[in-house]
Amino acid sequence: MIRFLYVLLLAGLFASFNGKAESISRKHVLKGVEQLVVVVTNGWDSSEGKLMCFSREGRKSWRPKFKESIPVMLGSKGIAWGRGVFIEAGRKIKKEGDGCAPAGIFKIGKIYGESESLPVKSKYPYHRITKLDAWIDDPKNPFYNRHVKIGPHEKEPVWFQSQRMRLGDPAYKWLIEIRHNSDPPKPGYGSAIFFHVQRGPDRKTAGCTAMKLIDLERLISFLREDKTPHYVLLPYSEYKRKIKILNLPDFSY
Q1: Would you state the pLDDT for residue 183?
Q2: Which of 27, 53, 108, 199 could serve as a FRET partner for 232 with CA atoms 20 to 30 Å apart?
Q3: Beta pairing partners, 113
């Protein structure tokens, strides 16, 4: 299984890194997207932000889901441009281990957790984590920034134990994948970026977006796969400049 995935990864990397632009044109970034999770911050160096969920049908206007925004904690070093569906050139770019949360627009992937099922009223692709699951943050590993699950009778790769997904950690009760640097992953540009439970009211992250458990579960109940949910993270000044260009919802910091 691991050997087969490795062949597919090499083929995908070769096809993608051919010198062409990696981002979708601005005009079509949110085409077909009917759910947005938006976080705005006070600036590039800020480790705190405000989150709001928005939805729409077709070409109708965006509507907020909650009455009030949700406070979130971000990277200890603030935010830097990440690799998603929209990439801004000429700015600080996120790298592995830099302590920055990735800014930009990203697809939202699967939800991971240890529970048998998602919270009540939730309906979204879910993978239950076991001791057989790993998420690779080593840029030298061919499965960098990918979820890998080995078979129950499969011999563990030598790197597996150091890359295993954590079990029994309250901060990782739920992990919602933020697909930064994922299509395909580029070694060294950041890995394992999720929405997860914050460790404390003022505890900064290594690059993820963290919030209280009750708020994370509200977010989980909001998400629907058929609405093609995306995540937007930007400083408020940058967000305001891009509202009309990218057809983003109005959101005050």
Answers
A1: 93
A2: 199
A3: 128, 174
Q: How many Å apart are CA 39 and CA 101, to the nearest integer? A: 11
As given in the structure block, the two tokens for residue 49 are 């932000």
In which region does residue 247 sit, left (phi positive, over 0), alpha (psi from -120 to 50) or beta (all else)?
A: left
Collapsed DSSP state (helix, strand, coil) of residue 120: coil
Does residue 20 fall inside a structural domain?
no
Helix residue ranges per DSSP H, the chain: 2-16, 160-163, 213-222, 236-246
Residue 11 lies in a domain: no
What range does the domain containing 100 cover? 34-246
Residue 5 pLDDT more than 70?
no
Helix (H), strand (E) at residue 96: none
pLDDT digits (tens, 9 = 90+) for 99-151: 999 999 999 999 999 999 999 999 999 999 999 999 999 999 999 999 999 99
The C-alpha R_g of the chain, in whole angstroms, comes to 18
According to DSSP, residue 172 is labeled G
* Closest-CA residue to 196 (of 181, 182, 217, 211): 211
- Domain membership flag for residue 235: yes
Helix (H) or strand (E) holding 86: none
pTM: 0.89
Q: Convert the pLDDT of each residue in 151-196 to its tens digit.
A: 999 999 999 999 999 999 999 999 999 999 999 999 999 999 999 9
In the chain, what's the furthest Cα-to-Cα distance? Answer: 53
